[in-house]
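Duplicate of #3305? Posting structure anyway:
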């Protein structure tokens, strides 16, 4: 297994190389573009739904193209924007300057596992698109809890290991997880593949347990997205048809239809830090 430092180095290289992709995906008329737009919109709607102080302090970990950071600053938040990749930092800085929000935002490099931020100082922490790249949940969640004030809110997400599309493709079946991890470890050991970072999936229940252990006793989650629809890696539908199916399933999930309300590709979670813990 890679050390924490090695893993961070690989993540930095990966997101440096893919910085343009993460800026452009949000405007692409594709199923993936739809999923990322919906994920961001859900996170922002959750922020608007909770009772937090106007003009409070927020931190966004994994600021990427800067869309959430800009949206928060436009709502009057004072934002600390952090990303591990210099190009991502530059993209967020450019977005902030274009909107003339530099007086509300500070952009900097940083690692979610080694946050150089003041403890108990933030009302809100947003780390969307972060946990799925972490080999463990305990360290990043403990770090996020440490910088939040008592009663502060946290918004995170995970890629759902029990998602509908995982049951459609034998390669993604949850029961295949242990075998896939062993195969990946062996392939890296014998240098059949490189040490590229890969996103991981996680069950909603596992995330709940990790949040509780980190000091977030209460949390609500929302299911987002129902693709991609594949079988053995091959698309089952055209892009347009896949989008239509995804939107129909999302509409049913939003209405609380059993099974579907927990079967989205991503779970976006709003958690509250306990009042009496660091």
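Output from current build:
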């Amino acid at each position: 297994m890679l050390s924490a430092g090695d893993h961070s180095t690989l993540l930095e290289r990966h997101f440096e190389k893919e910085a343009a992709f993460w800026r452009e995906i949000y405007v692409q008329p594709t199923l993936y573009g739809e999923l990322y737009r919906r994920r961001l919109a859900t996170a922002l709607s959750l922020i608007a739904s909770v009772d937090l102080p106007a003009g409070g302090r927020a931190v966004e970990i994994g600021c990427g193209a800067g869309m959430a950071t800009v949206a928060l600053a436009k709502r009057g938040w004072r934002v600390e924007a952090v990303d591990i990749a210099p190009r991502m930092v530059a993209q967020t800085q450019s977005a902030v300057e274009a909107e003339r929000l530099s007086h509300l935002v500070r952009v900097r490099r940083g690692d979610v596992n080694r946050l150089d931020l003041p403890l108990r100082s933030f009302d809100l922490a947003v780390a969307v698109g972060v946990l799925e790249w972490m080999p463990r949940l305990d360290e990043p969640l403990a770090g996020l809890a440490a910088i939040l004030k008592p009663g502060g809110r946290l918004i995170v997400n995970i890629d759902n290991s029990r998602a509908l599309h995982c049951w459609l493709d034998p390669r993604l079946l949850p029961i295949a997880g242990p075998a896939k991890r062993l195969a990946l470890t062996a392939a890296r050991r014998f240098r059949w593949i490189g040490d590229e970072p890969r996103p991981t999936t996680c069950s909603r229940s596992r995330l709940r347990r990790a949040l509780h252990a980190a000091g977030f006793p209460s949390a609500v989650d929302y299911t987002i997205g129902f693709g991609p629809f594949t079988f053995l890696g091959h698309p089952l539908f055209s892009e347009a048809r896949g989008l239509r199916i995804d939107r129909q399933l999302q509409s049913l999930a939003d209405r609380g239809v059993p099974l579907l309300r927990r079967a989205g590709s991503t779970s976006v979670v709003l958690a509250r830090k306990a009042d009496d813990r660091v």
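Confirmed duplicate; merging threads. The radius of gyration is 18 Å. Strands lie at 57-61, 78-83, 105-109, 122-127, 148-160, 201-202, 218-224, 230-231, 234-235, 266-272.
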